[in-house]
Amino acid sequence: MNSEFFYSKNDTVTSNSKSSIIKERLSLVTSHMYKQYCEHTDSAKNTNKVFSDMLKTMEEVVATMKKNFEEKGINPNNISCTIDADKSVGILNILWHSISFTTRGNTKPQALYRSDNAPMFCGRIIALNGDFKNASMDISDLQYPGVLSCEMASMYVPSDPNKDAVMKIRHIGNIEYKINQSNAAREFLLKVIEIICGGGFYHEENFE
């Protein structure tokens, strides 16, 4: 939307002219917001489809890892997944790791900032390190900073199903990785599992 706003300091402007100015300027705002609304609606639809595919893939991941660990003599009950009633949160438990995936927070048009391209209005799937099935997962604007401190990666899904989704991984500088939407659910899920489960922990040490 054009950032140059017009206003008149001329007190002699007629009532009809003022009414015309109001209609013209609000028409521009309405058109701008309608475009955002349409992109938000379409991106939400695409995001929900990708997430639904991800939840199905999550169940396949659990079945495969149960079999793999059982063959190594580890209790397969230590691998599971939980999906909430409205299917907006999926939690994957693999031994000592818990990973949460959610689409909550996609309640209004939001865009992915691009330094050298126009912003891309899109939905977002967030991968969090930890089990977020409690009330803190009911993300509000005020809770976002706290929740995102546990973010490992995010998948941004555009309104056009023929355009690539964008994956950004936090610990490697949020570089953009483009993924075809048809493969986005599988690739995002597997990449997050590789990042979290392929790493390790260090013992805490205090030298003070």
Short key terms for the protein model shown above:
8-stranded antiparallel β-sheet; alpha+beta
Report on this model:
By secondary structure, this protein is an alpha+beta fold. The chain is built from 3 helices and 8 strands; from the N terminus they run αβββββαβββα. Strands 1, 2, 3, 4, 5, 6, 7 and 8 form an 8-stranded antiparallel sheet that branches. α1 packs across α3. It is elongated and about 85 Å long. The N and C termini lie far apart (56 Å). The model has no long low-confidence stretch (mean pLDDT 87).
Question: What's the layout of helices and strands?
Answer:
Blueprint: H1 15-71, E1 79-83, E2 89-94, E3 97-102, E4 111-112, E5 120-129, H2 144-148, E6 151-158, E7 165-169, E8 176-179, H3 181-197
Antiparallel strand pairs: 1-2, 2-3, 3-5, 4-5, 5-6, 6-7, 7-8
In short:
The chain has 208 residues and is α+β, with helices and mostly antiparallel strands. The chain is 38% helix and 22% strand. The protein has three helices and eight strands.
N/C terminus separation: 56 Å
Shape, please? elongated
Radius of gyration: 23 Å
Order of helices and strands: HEEEEEHEEEH
